[in-house]
Amino acid sequence: MQLQHEPSLQSESLLSNPLPRPTLIARWEIENNKLICRWVVDDRPFDSSVHF
Question: What are the extents of the domains in the chain?
Answer without folding.
Answer: 20-52
